[in-house]
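Re: Re: token formats

Sure, here are both.
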Amino acid sequence: MTNPRVVLGVSGASGAALSLAVARKLSSLGVEVDLVVSPAANLTLAQECGADALEDLRDLVTRHHETTDVGASIASGSVPISGMIVAPCSMRTLAAISLGLDDNLLTRAASVQLKERRPLILLTREAPLTLAHLRNMTAATEMGAVIMPPVPAFYLKPLSLTEIIDQIAARAVDSLGAFEPIAARWQPPV
């Protein structure tokens, strides 16, 4: 039996640290990760996480695919995948997914998850939202995607940005529904 396999898409929205945190969580679970990084995400990773961030991200995953490689295995529904997380998900990527515009491997892999009725978790990043953003979120949700803006779980009283990022990444992995939950849970006061 092979390990579970998940696609991690990284688009150019702010929040590049989320991609590294999701990759670390999936790696710690023994998951095979197929990585697709948009050209804009390459820039954001370097600006927000440092010059070596893309290399660090690639070290955490099983396979890396170029966005132009629309013939990669993850572009086919016949390849067994447990789901996909796009972290972060830009409004451009959201729009392409919501319209079925499979113009690169990242959006094609997302489309495959939807057509195969597999989990697609989109950590959408933008604020404030326009009506176009909201309509694209609605369309993607109606097709089966989970829209998961990276909003902190303030009730857990995080002490650092790293704790916030790790919790959001854990929630995204939990949303795949393929593994035992790893995110911290709210506990009612005693």
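Second one below.
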Amino acid sequence: MRIIDKAFPELTVHELYAILRLRMDVFVVEQACAYPELDGRDAEPETRHLWVPADGDGLPGIATYLRVLNDGDGVRIGRVVTSPGHRGRGLSGALLRHAIDANAHARIDIDAQSHLARWYGGFGFQVNGEEFLEDGIPHLPMHLDPRSG
């Protein structure tokens, strides 16, 4: 499995298009959430874009994607998304593990869709706040903090 890790200026036009298309197809269309997908954080200098390409299996584009944002005292993983044709293969778990390992020195925060809290818990994330609605979908704030022991 090949994992690609790039900063915004390193992305090709085709890579950026594939990233945005996957995020729009899943978050906006499949999950029926009208929200400002282009939030300005993709282009921040320290943001990393990580994905597994879908090449080699007959499906074009990106199999799974996430971004890592600098949040000052730690990082925030978000926009974790897997193409419908690639779900159930463990790809997003491998990509998340890669992102965790690459940021092992830092506190990592996520806002997990509530139904995925157990999945994130399997990576060591712990709920650290109350459930909230984001774009009509229940979420839980979670973190993984190497400083806490």
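The domain at 4-148 is CATH 3.40.630.30 (Aminopeptidase). The first helix runs from residue 13 to 30.
- S.
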